[in-house]
Write a structure and sequence with these properties.
about 650 residues; alpha+beta; Phosphorylase Kinase, domain 1; 6-stranded mixed sheet; about 40% helix; binds 2-acetamido-2-deoxy-beta-D-glucopyranose; Protein kinase domain-containing protein; ATP binding
């Protein structure tokens, strides 16, 4: 009887969330990199057994890389049937793949305990750790956590040469998915610069469906390289989908022939256009843009995707290329357009004119940025001169909820127009400074909102530092470059100063910047022009200081001789946090009574670390993000009943 009851409780625990959550399997996010933390609720151990069947056919993707670059070696590594693998990829069984090519892998997925897995057998080599096995060898198809579980069951020590079962991440369709005609789930291995919409477009799948399958949403869609994204498929995937760019339909390679030689950039581009005009990719990506816009604007009615703009995209895009770019720039340009057309909407100039009342001063937000209404949704439209392909390219490869989203472009009369999502609450600078509170009394933020904003910024910068290729340093942190959306979540804007972290800082950026936002720049940058990701860490330290004190950095500088961190000295001296008058004096008076003192002290210590004169002594952005995340969680727990101090909402 007792065991029966236990069983019931257990089954309820197991089944209830699966039934109640309509979305399917949680996306793993960055958790795969933190091998010490086990968090089964976010599926680091595998996808939950929530499908109709306990066993099913499934697919994986793998990126060919020596020594795993032939049909045989990949089949062996991933325990796949070589005959089926070669057929699926339309190559012979003896074929080799080019490095970096996406290979489709058929597999059998089955439920073991709570999680689905496909078994691979791996022979341990010296120097292997669970992380390198999962991430480097299996490229993220498994996780260190899952490998660790297998390992802990072994009674003998792991030594090079011993065999280990590596559970690969796979899943079977759920009841909801099966009802929608989904027959397979493909575990797609994400690589640099991809977004949910670009991956969905590869397989001709609706972006919204892919988001739902991974419990992602239009609010939370950031994905990271070397993790898996489930793509729901109604048919077997095929090689014509995975080789980019898709070949023209008339000359698809016959089955069992080696892969076609890689075409030149120009051909690629033409192929791409044909592919795009063919419709699938563009339709779904426009679908996503529309989807995004509508959801952002409180889920108004979704207008039908506009396929007709495909030809428009062709015209608008070809024009500047036809003009006076030299050959080198031309191919760069082509390449950047290649990626633009895959995920951006190209607007007609007339559309933007009517959106902004013919660019009337009434619609001017600031500088050359206009507020417009497109299909009933608000957008920010930025008019730009010159070659903006670099900025467009960067904006088009970053996909993070806290980095402003470029939704479309337009080219007219030698100007580019970039169309961005609109953040209704405007710049952070309107919200945090005390003197501005006095003028606009109802504009202020509570403690939790402030910490959330700092965390958003840290997450976005961590993404730029560690999850884009090449890594970027943002360099332009200041409160006016952070916009707030309707839920007071941060969106970073203005990427024109962002630099690849590998390259050197141009003099241009240096001189220009010292004029602009001196208070935010780190000492090593001001003195030696040194650019590293630690520059942004310093900048975030300054921003957090402003957020906590409600004072502008200039005002804070008035108090100190040299190092900004000196403003913290008084507060940090006091040991007893509960009776810390210095803390009360330090924190924005608007927050009095609203913040937990010991958490405020943690933030102040974090700021102190970020402002360290020695860049190498500063924490990295990932650590900052983790600390803020803890502060936020604890603040929410401490003060659930916090009064919302924002009346303006
Ligand atoms: C596990 O992940 C969930 C969802 O992200 C989170 O709420 C929870 O705090 C995590 N648990 C641990 C122990 O990290
Ligand atoms: C591999 O697949 C082929 C075709 O589906 C099948 O004939 C063959 O028996 C399979 N081989 C193994 C080892 O399962
Ligand atoms: C996968 O391996 C585990 C042992 O690690 C085993 O229990 C399970 O039966 C295997 N699954 C399949 C489908 O072979
Ligand atoms: C994970 O593996 C990839 C190659 O598969 C490598 O490029 C990347 O640097 C690895 N990540 C880490 C954190 O080592
Ligand atoms: C590994 O150990 C866990 C419990 O420690 C057990 O539930 C699981 O079945 C074991 N797996 C294998 C393959 O022995
Ligand atoms: C579940 O298995 C049955 C029998 O093999 C099959 O007919 C059905 O299509 C499967 N359902 C799904 C959703 O895969």
């Amino acid at each position: 009887m007792a065991s029966m009851r236990l069983f019931l409780i257990f089954s309820l625990l197991l089944i209830f969330p699966l039934v109640s959550i309509k979305a399917q399997q949680p996306y793993i996010k960055k958790l795969n990199t933190n091998c010490r933390v086990r968090n089964a609720s976010t599926s680091v151990l595998g996808y939950a057994c929530n499908g109709v069947n306990r066993t099913c056919e499934a697919y994986l993707t793998f990126r060919s890389r020596p020594p795993y670059n032939t049909v045989t070696s990949i089949s062996n590594l991933l325990n796949a049937n070589a005959t089926q693998l070669s057929q699926l990829n339309s190559v012979s069984e003896t074929a080799a793949f080019g490095t970096g090519e996406t290979v489709l892998v058929p597999t059998r997925c089955s439920c073991l305990g709570q999680f689905y897995q496909a078994n691979a057998t791996y022979v341990i080599q010296s120097g292997d750790t669970p992380f390198t096995i999962a991430n480097n060898t299996f490229e993220g198809l498994s996780t260190c956590h899952a490998v660790q579980v297998e390992r802990s069951n072994l009674t003998i020590d792991i030594y090079p040469g011993s065999r280990l079962t590596v559970p690969l991440r796979c899943a079977c369709p759920t009841e909801n998915q099966a009802a929608d005609g989904i027959r397979y789930l493909l575990s797609y291995l994400i690589t640099w610069g991809q977004s949910v919409s670009s991956i969905s477009a590869i397989f001709g799948v609706n972006t919204g469906v892919t988001l739902a399958a991974n419990q992602l949403s239009e609010q939370d869609f950031t994905i990271y390289p070397f993790t898996t994204l489930l793509v729901p498929l109604s048919d077997q995937p095929s090689r014509s989908q995975t080789i980019a760019p898709p070949p023209p339909p008339t000359t698809s390679p016959p089955p069992s022939s080696p892969p076609p030689p890689t075409s030149s950039v120009d051909n690629k581009w033409i192929y791409m256009l044909i592919g795009v005009l063919g419709g699938v990719a563009l339709t779904s990506s426009i679908g996503f843009a529309v989807f995004w816009f509508c959801f952002l604007q409180k889920r108004k009615q979704i207008p039908p995707p506009m396929v007709s703009s495909a030809s428009q995209s062709f015209e608008a895009i070809v024009k500047p290329g036809d003009k006076k770019l030299d050959v080198d720039e031309d191919s760069d340009f082509m390449e950047s357009l290649n990626s633009i057309a895959q995920s951006l909407k190209v607007y007609k100039f007339e559309e933007l004119k009517s959106a902004t009342q013919d660019f009337s001063p009434n619609c001017l937000i600031k500088g050359s940025v206009y507020k417009g209404t497109i299909n009933g949704d608000l957008a920010a439209i930025k008019k730009m001169h010159g070659d903006v392909s670099k900025e467009i390219q960067l904006l088009n490869t970053i996909h993070h909820h806290n980095l402003i989203r470029l939704s479309g472009v337009c080219f007219n009369d030698s100007h580019w127009y970039l169309v961005f999502e609109f953040a209704v609450n405007g710049p952070l600078s309107d919200w945090i400074y005390q003197d501005e509170h006095e003028q606009t009394t109802n504009k202020s933020l509570n403690w939790i909102q402030r910490i959330q904003i700092a965390l958003d910024v840290a997450n976005a910068l961590d993404y730029l530092h560690s999850y884009t290729t090449p890594p970027y340093v943002y360099k332009n942190l200041e409160s006016s470059n952070i916009l707030l959306d309707d839920e007071f979540r941060a969106k970073i804007i203005n990427f024109d100063l962002a630099r690849s972290a590998e390259g050197q800082a141009g003099q241009f950026a240096l001189t220009r910047h010292i004029v602009g936002t001196r208070g935010y720049m780190s000492p090593e940058y001001l003195e030696n022009g040194l650019v590293s990701t630690k520059l942004d860490v310093y900048g975030l330290g300054v921003l957090m200081l402003e957020i906590v004190t409600g004072k502008h950095v200039y005002e804070l500088y008035e108090k100190v001789k040299k190092n900004l961190s000196e403003v913290l000295d008084d507060v940090l001296e006091v040991e007893d946090t509960d009776e810390n008058q210095k803390l009360t004096d330090f924190v924005d008076p608007f927050l009095q009574g609203d913040y937990p003192p010991h958490l405020a002290m943690s933030v102040i210590r974090l700021i102190d670390g970020c402002l360290d004169k020695d860049p190498s002594a500063r924490p990295d952005m990932n650590e900052v993000s983790q600390s803020l995340s803890r502060v936020l969680t604890t603040s929410q727990a401490v003060d659930i009943s916090v009064t919302i101090s924002v009346q303006g909402r």
